[in-house]
Amino acid sequence: MSSLSTHVLDTVSGKPAAGVSLRLLQGDRVLFEGQTNADGRCPELRDVAVSKGMYCLEFRIGDYFRKGGQVLSDPPFLDVVPIVFGLAAGAHAHVPLLAAPFGYSTYRGS
Q: Tens of pLDDT along 54-97?
């Protein structure tokens, strides 16, 4: 079995992004829905059974910035950030998201 974790950071404030809604999908199938905690992490994601294959983590970053009082364009430039990635058999993938209203970055963490 493989495992998965994430960490969302708000690059505007320089702090963890608490309360970001996210989903894990494999194809059209939703495997997990949750929210980041006060540290910008979603520990429950580790409990999801994942195996070798392609996945997508979707982050509702527009809602997060709106709730925080950030003025966004209408429609927002970034609303849902999808990160599509592959998992090898027996691997762990840490998929962080560094986000701002007009840009984001990700990488394969450890």
A: 999 999 999 999 999 999 999 999 999 999 999 999 889 999 99
Q: Are 38 and 2 in contact (CB under 8 A)?
A: no
78 DSSP β-pair partners: none
Q: Which two tokens stand for residue 54?
A: 């392609």
Amino acid at 5: S
pLDDT digits (tens, 9 = 90+) for 31-50: 999 999 999 999 999 999 99
Under DSSP, the state recorded for 107 is: -
**CA torsion 63→23→96→17, rounded to 10°?**
30
58 closest CA partner among 90, 87, 29: 29
Residue 48 vs residues 4, 84, 108: alpha-carbon distances, Å: 8, 17, 18
